[in-house]
Structure formats: C-alpha cells, structure tokens
Amino acid sequence: MLYKLLVLLHPFFRIAGRGLAILLLLASFGLVAYAAYYENAPWVWFSCVGCFVACLLVTLLCTFYNWWLFKLRPRGALFMPFD
User: Fold this and answer.
1) Which structural domain range is residue 29 located in?
2) By the 8 A CB rule, do 79 and 10 touch?
3) How many structural domains does the chain have?
4) pTM to 2 decimal places
5) What is the mean pLDDT of residues 48-69?
C-alpha cells in the first residue's frame, strides 16, 4: 500500500519535493523568529518543531526516494518503475 502511494506520488516529489522542503524550513525559521520576538505561546513552538520535522521528512523522502521504493517493494519481485 505504501509502495503504491510512493509510486503514485513520484512526479510530485520529483518536481516539487525539494521546493516544499525549503518552504517548510523557511516557515519554521519564521515561526521561531515570531515566537522569540512577539509571542511566547507553546503552540507556536510546537508548530516550529512540526514544520522542521516535516521539512526533514520531506528531505529524507526526496533524497532516498529510490531506496524507499526498493525497500518497500512487493517481496519476490524486483520492480523499479523508474530509471
């Protein structure tokens, strides 16, 4: 199931994955600056951490995309749909 989702989302992560990771990183930096200077609420810090973790996960997924396809492939078959 996860393998099919990765194959389905391949065009998105190939084109927009790194841009999305950069936007999430900039959003986390912006939220840190907002929390440090204007507001000291815990929800802002949690959203900073959430954006940063999402940035890391998207970056890892984009960087090791073929490895994830290989590891999550159906057993007994070596099916790599992309070069």
Assistant:
1) 18-71
2) no
3) 1
4) 0.68
5) 85
